[in-house]
Amino acid sequence: MGELTDKIKGNLNELAGKVKQQSGNPETRDEGAAQELKGKGQQLGGKIKGALGDDI
To answer: Where are the beta strands (DSSP E) in the chain?
Structure first.
């Protein structure tokens, strides 16, 4: 179950980050880039958990 949860959270963070990057405010764009990167990390964590059978 942790695998799916991580992948979902990752997708949501990545999407929110992409939306924020469309802002006219440079601080919000930077925050969006960081959030998108966080989402990609969460998805990677989910893939690793899936490969290891959620034993980590």
So the answer is: none
